[in-house]
Amino acid sequence: MRLSSSDVAQQDEEGENKCLNSELWHACAGPLIYLPPVGSHVVYFPQGHSEQIAASSKKEIDAHNPNYPSLSPQLTCQLQNVTMHVDLETDEVYARMTLQPLTLPVQKDVCLLSSELGTPSKQPANYFCKILTASDTSTHGGFSVPRRAAERVFPSLDYSQQPPYQELIARDLHDNEWKFRHTFRGQPKRHLLTTGWSVFVSAKRLVAGDSIIFIWNEKNQLLVGIRRANRLQTVMPTSVFSSDSMHIGLLASAAHAAATNGRFTVFYNPRASPSEFVVPLTKYVKAVYHTRVSVGMRFRMLFETEESNVRRFMGTITGVSDLDPVRWPNSHWRTVKVGWDESIAKERQPRVSFWEIEPLTTFPMYPSVSGFPLRLKRPWPSGLPSFPAFKDDGMSIN
Amino acid sequence: MRLSSSDVAQQDEEGENKCLNSELWHACAGPLIYLPPVGSHVVYFPQGHSEQIAASSKKEIDAHNPNYPSLSPQLTCQLQNVTMHVDLETDEVYARMTLQPLTLPVQKDVCLLSSELGTPSKQPANYFCKILTASDTSTHGGFSVPRRAAERVFPSLDYSQQPPYQELIARDLHDNEWKFRHTFRGQPKRHLLTTGWSVFVSAKRLVAGDSIIFIWNEKNQLLVGIRRANRLQTVMPTSVFSSDSMHIGLLASAAHAAATNGRFTVFYNPRASPSEFVVPLTKYVKAVYHTRVSVGMRFRMLFETEESNVRRFMGTITGVSDLDPVRWPNSHWRTVKVGWDESIAKERQPRVSFWEIEPLTTFPMYPSVSGFPLRLKRPWPSGLPSFPAFKDDGMSIN
DNA sequence: GTGTCGGCCGTCTGCCGACAA
DNA sequence: TTGTCGGCAGACGGCCGACAC
Known about the structure:
2 copies of one chain form a homodimer. The first copy, chain A, is of the alpha+beta class. Helices cover 18% and strands 27% of the residues of chain A. Chain A has 8 helices and 19 strands. The first copy, chain A, has helices at 22-29, 46-56, 108-113, 134-137, 147-153, 197-203, 243-260, 281-289, and strands at residues 10-13, 16-19, 41-44, 75-86, 93-101, 127-131, 143-145, 165-171, 177-185, 190-193, 211-216, 222-227, 264-268, 278-280, 298-304, 310-320, 336-340, 351-352, 357-359. Chain A has a 7-stranded mixed sheet. A 5-stranded antiparallel sheet of chain A has the order 13-5-4-3-14. In chain A, strands 18-17-16-15-19 form a 5-stranded antiparallel sheet, with no helix packed on it. In chain A, α2 (46-56) packs antiparallel against α7 (243-260). Chain A is elongated, with a radius of gyration of 23 Å. The A-B interface holds A 12, 52-53, 56, 64, 66, 85, 87-90, 92, 94, 96, 234-242, 244-253, 256, 260, 262, 264-267, 269, 272 and B 12, 52-53, 56, 64, 66, 85, 87-90, 92, 94, 96, 234-242, 244-253, 256, 260, 262, 264-267, 269, 272. Chain A binds a DNA duplex (21 and 21 nucleotides) through α4. Chains A, B: It comes from Nepenthes gracilis.
């Protein structure tokens, strides 16, 4: 039995902690987002964290940013707490994690005994996600519900009425109630949300391209969430705090905790940027130390589709090297350079991390001596995993 | 001739620096806000900076926040750059300052030769500021212009028409144009802004209690600015960055710059909180080292009124002590405990800094031996002013 | 001198099926 | 199956002077 982070879904609102619907949070976060359970061991990547801050503040990481030589590029931590949150203004979902750096050496074999490998969380059974059209968000009319979605997720209408209609009451992540008149009319017949819809659109400031999510849960409650297409609204107000200071802040925060054996807190916004900078230790160890990866190798990787589904994209590993050899040497963050099969996928990130991909030819457990093996040192030099992967230059740096 | 910071008014917009109207910026910032000139020497208070972050993020400074023993509570710096900015979303004004910590001892006598004592910037001559009423912001009608304000600031109407009217075009800090129909009608006659007003109100999201500013400048241009009453909108989106990390970030940023003789950047939002944490060195030196202050002494202090005017409030010094003896010993930030004469003023801060007040009995230059003199050490122990003022317990800590 | 209201028009919101992709 | 449109009715925006404080 494991302690699930889903049980501690909470949010800050006026300083008060209220319970927040975990199912809805995950639906808004997307099918690939996974929050490690409380108490589990994770690897924290300050480099990835920095990426998220940079993406959120739309600023490049300044070259003159100080590097913290004392701060390891990957920090093994125990996840002491995870809470789910939602921004009051924008409805962005995010998680708050409290991390306790570990100083004792971690046995990788012990880690592998855990069944926790960071599989993505299951999405709700009865739900749908629709990208809003111009007609949906226009003041001229209501919301056109896709037929199969309406019949699966909404309570069935009394079709003896002409036209049939019902009042739907849906709750959002703030536990606000939204009322919608649901009807089935027109020629040809279609499901529509009319009265109440425009209030929702204007209150949430939805525009065409944004998405709406409806969930019918096990308690027969209707939940509603949104997902914005436009990531630009994630812009930080720089009116009080410089981007530089933020970068320094996260580094100093982690370094201070590691040095003093204290805890530190990070915020993870899964939709602000694809930077999963807190990774389950077992997932990390398996990918980095127990999976053979070499240049030219074919792999699959999961991506989220526009309709909130999961799709596999194929690619080839074209190189393995440090993303930032100067500031973050010996990091495992995005060390894998890849090429994607589909030209549409070219816009996807040209660099991924070992644990994000699924090699098509896997040799489980320890690497062999043939091919392009990873060199494995043991025991680890410290409690922090810092074993360098196979690099382009063929050198083992550590 | 001094280099004024007004000459380098700029803003970041999509990464591009554009010129920003300094006169309008100062009108929005308020009559008491003063930006030291580029090249001048200032004192930076990380403690005050921290206060601003705390106020903006509506969070207390956590007790377990690390203190940076290596970071002086007041840092003498050269102001290398000042730029004025305005938030794209909220129209909040703020300044970005680049500070270069000084390691050489600063001669206080030299400083006093400078005429720069941080006097508040002059407000524009032809301007008015009105707090919006419920009728002003309601969709039911337009904006009622105070008569004397309209006659002083707006071009005079052609009263031969019935009713007289004209088209006003005003520019905001983003250099956007706003058109207003200005007319003079009703019984009794009054000045009104009708067509165009509601667009402005909804675009700026103005509510009753917010203020609007109109300026008629020397180039015969009409400028318009806003000031929000509700400080709550300054809330930081915590969806990507923890308040703790921000506090650590600003401390680490300053400490790193001081240690490596590098520069650091701060953002100063004059309306987010009354925390002027970058003070002209001469103003600081004069107040702390050349003005006799003692318990029981009467003083005056400037405050901003609701209508953007300046008013003096009277008070009595009730004590002098460290605001935070644990984390910030020997700081001069808000060391003066005060009582205010008017009960209305009781809500004002119970603690101020030496340079904010104007003692009614001043002995210029060096302190005498009578009364409650400040003890003056010389030379200073370091280049950073850290001389403790007279404390409640009568002990000189340094 | 100015904040709010009732009166009155005009525009826009928002519900409807038609039609086409 | 569903996105967009024309048509239409009612709600609200927005301009006016009347009052009162």
